[in-house]
Amino acid sequence: MTMTAPDRVEQGARAALRHCPQLRSLDPATVDALARAATVRRYAAGEAVFRAGDAGDAMFVLLHGSVVSRLTSSAGDVVDLGAAAVGHGFGYFELLDPGPRTEDAVAVRDSSVLVLPATAVRRALQTNPATLLALAGDLVRIVRLSNRARAGRTFHPVPRRVAGLLLELEHHGDRVDFGGPQTLLAQRLGIARQTLNTALRALAERGLIRLHPGGRGATIDRPALVAYAAGSR
Questions:
Q1: Which residues contact 203 (CB under 8 A, 6 or more apart)?
Q2: pTM value?
Q3: Do you know which InterPro entries this protein is assigned to (predicted)?
Q4: CA distance 126 to 68
């Protein structure tokens, strides 16, 4: 992990705060105060931003790279819960519900993050109710996605759910762009990345899709995939 010089941090922090969806409603004076309190840290691929059990003493904004939320069992099994989008905040649950971290946040490629001390963020929320509502709204969105995923796990097999999602993604003819790493795709369905990989392989074995090198897109047999997603094949 490395850090950036303070004078460069403050300037970059202002820009990041103005564009972060969860924080962009902050008033200018609060943006300045948070920018002065912020630091920038860089993490190599595989390095943890924080670990389960750590104190929830900061919120983060992803400036560059890719950071996933991850659970690791005592047996060493790993499940990726979701990925932070560049420019978005993460690690703020403990600001609203104080306590230790409940999962890891790990850089999956070289990444840089803006670090906002919890005390400074809480002070900002006290004078910026719109920002507090934005964070609460983000939590509601996550809960809704989780509920939808739970219902999907109950009523629909994972490969059919993946097929339905592929049909919703941006496409160029029969070529579908996943829009980023497969972790983000798994997050939309509320499943582990490993589960998504298994489902994609199952669709490929059925001849419904052909995965592209690098795993960030696929060529699909659209009529067959529509029929499969609807349960008629």
A1: 159, 162, 163, 166, 209, 225, 228
A2: 0.65
A3: cNMP-bd_dom, cNMP-bd_dom_sf, Env_Response_Regulators, HTH_CRP, RmlC-like_jellyroll, WH-like_DNA-bd_sf, WH_DNA-bd_sf
A4: 29
